[in-house]
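Example record

The entry below shows one chain as it appears in the dataset: sequence first, then structure tokens.
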Amino acid sequence: MKKSILNLGKALTTNEQKEINGGAWGPCYQKGVMCCRETGTVMGTFCEPGACTRWGTCIYY
């Protein structure tokens, strides 16, 4: 059971992450030293200096 749960998904490439549409704060993607996320609003993409974690969240610094 544990192995089947761990294999539910796969890591997305940066290009695949950029193509994701949906929620206001979807998975992040790395753009140089910037961690970027689509806002899902007219504002477009939000990028600040930081790192994208493997869980799809930004750690800003």
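Notes for this example: Residues 25-60 form one domain. The radius of gyration is 13 Å.
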